[in-house]
């Protein structure tokens, strides 16, 4: 099955937030610092702004480069369709 793609739009304050947070673990949408144990992530494909509905593979997306997973804040996760937000099971294990 071909994965679906969704274009993430940075918020207006993305650059400012990313600079303030030191960009260590910025939310892909608003640039605010995410906790390292944040369980929510998106799977970026190509150019750093398109995310895949598939949590791991970019199968069927011939012209896209898989850029792996990046954190998204809980409030930003609510602003994009649910099928593009994935939960990191390993992160949940680590915080125990
Ligand atoms: Zn955010």
Quick take:
The protein has 96 residues and is α+β, with helices and mostly antiparallel strands. It is 18% helix and 21% strand. The longest helix is centred in the N-terminal third of the chain and has 7 residues, at 14-20.
Keyphrases for this structure?
96 residues; single chain; globular; alpha+beta
Total individual domains: 1
Distance between the termini: 35 Å
Q: Which radius of gyration do the C-alpha atoms yield? A: 13 Å
Ligands, deduplicated = zinc ion
Number of strands: 5
Describe the protein's architecture and organization.
With 96 residues, the protein is of the alpha+beta class. The protein has one domain. The chain is 18% helix and 21% strand. It is built from three helices and five strands, in the order βαβββαβα. Strands 1, 2, 3, 4 and 5 form a five-stranded antiparallel sheet that branches. β2 and β3 form a beta hairpin. The radius of gyration is 13 Å and the shape is globular. The N and C termini lie far apart (35 Å). The model has no long low-confidence stretch (mean pLDDT 82). Zinc ion binds next to loops.
Topology record:
Blueprint (H helix, E strand, L loop, with lengths): L4 E3 L6 H7 L19 E6 L4 E3 L13 E6 L2 H4 L8 E2 L1 H6 L2
Antiparallel strand pairs: 1-3, 2-3, 2-4, 2-5
Bound molecules: zinc ion.
């Amino acid at each position: 099955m071909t994965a679906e793609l969704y274009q993430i739009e940075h918020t207006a304050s993305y650059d400012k937030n990313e600079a303030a947070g030191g960009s260590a673990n910025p939310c892909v949408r608003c640039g605010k610092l995410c906790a390292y144990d944040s369980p929510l992530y998106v799977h970026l494909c190509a150019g750093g702004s398109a995310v895949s509905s598939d949590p791991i593979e970019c199968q069927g997306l011939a012209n896209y480069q898989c850029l792996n997973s990046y954190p998204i804040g809980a409030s930003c996760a609510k602003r994009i369709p649910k099928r593009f937000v994935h939960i990191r099971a390993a992160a949940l294990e680590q915080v125990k």
